[in-house]
Amino acid sequence: MDRTTLLDIRRLAAAGAWRRALRQIDAILAQDAGDALAWCERGTLLLLHEPQRTGDAMAAFDTSIKLDAGNPMSLYNRGCLHAHNNDFSAAARDVAAAIALDGDCLDMAREDESFSVARTIPQFQAVLSAQ
Length: 131
Description:
Serine Threonine Protein Phosphatase 5, Tetratricopeptide repeat
């Protein structure tokens, strides 16, 4: 997925047309199932807008990471999903890996509401303070 398409999809989602954005991502993936960024965006849309579809979101993040282990946002967002599922150990591992790839993820994790409960867990606190 090129940057322009990604921005268009994010604009759609931000405008409330996230279902249409998800359909566009699915169309991209139908043409190129190896597009790690599209898998990450699919997982993110599901995480944000269809929290009952955690299995589908997790599969999307897992696929994205398998295709591109160097994408910090796939790791970070999968960490958010783990936190949503109260798997704080896995959340801490993913966020630590995301921070190792992109230091900006540290500030994000310190502020992100997705981690409000995780930040009370010593293992997660260690990730945030070790940096």
